[in-house]
Amino acid sequence: MHVTIVGLGPSMNMFVELTKRLGGINGYCDEVWGINAVGNVLVCDRIFQMDDMNIQEARAKLNPNGNIATMCRWLKDHPGP
Q1: Does residue 67 sit in helix, strand or coil?
Q2: Which 3 state secondary structure label does DSSP give 55?
Q3: Nearest-angstrom CA–CA distance, 19 and 42
Q4: Tens of pLDDT along the chain (81 residues)?
Q5: What pLDDT shows up at residue 77?
Q6: What sign for the dihedral angle of Cα 51, 53, 54, 57?
Q7: Residue 2 CA to its chain's centroid (Å)
Q8: Looking at residue 78, what is its pLDDT?
Q9: Measured between alpha carbons, how far is residue 51 from residues 10, 23, 27, 57, 71 in Å?
Q10: Does the global pTM surpass 0.85?
Q11: Overall domain count for the chain
């Protein structure tokens, strides 16, 4: 099984370019595992939240319309692992 782990940095740009050239995700890997907010940007089989959620929720309260607040909201409802 070929698993690809994608973050929000250069790995995401490389992943998108490779999968475009190969005709889609299935042309490159069997599963996509996303780190943090990537799970709400790309279709991912698994999501890894790398930061302490208590800290992230405190940051979200300081900026309720920001990216951290958005990530915290969708993570709570995410159906998968």
Answers
A1: helix
A2: helix
A3: 12
A4: 999 999 989 989 999 999 999 999 999 999 999 998 898 899 899 998 888 889 999 999 999 999 899 988 888 887 776
A5: 81
A6: positive
A7: 18
A8: 79
A9: 19, 33, 31, 10, 12
A10: no
A11: 1
Within the chain, what is the greatest distance between any pair of CA atoms? 42
Conformational region of residue 69, where left means phi above 0, alpha means psi within -120 to 50, and beta covers everything else: alpha
What is the model's pLDDT at position 20? 96
Instruction: Provide the domain limits for residue 15.
Output: 3-77
End-to-end Cα distance, the chain? 18
- Residue 12: what residue type? M
* Distance in angstroms (rounded) separating the CA atoms of residues 9 and 43: 16
Residue type, 36: N
Distance from C-alpha of 47 to C-alpha of 5, rounded to nearest angstrom: 9
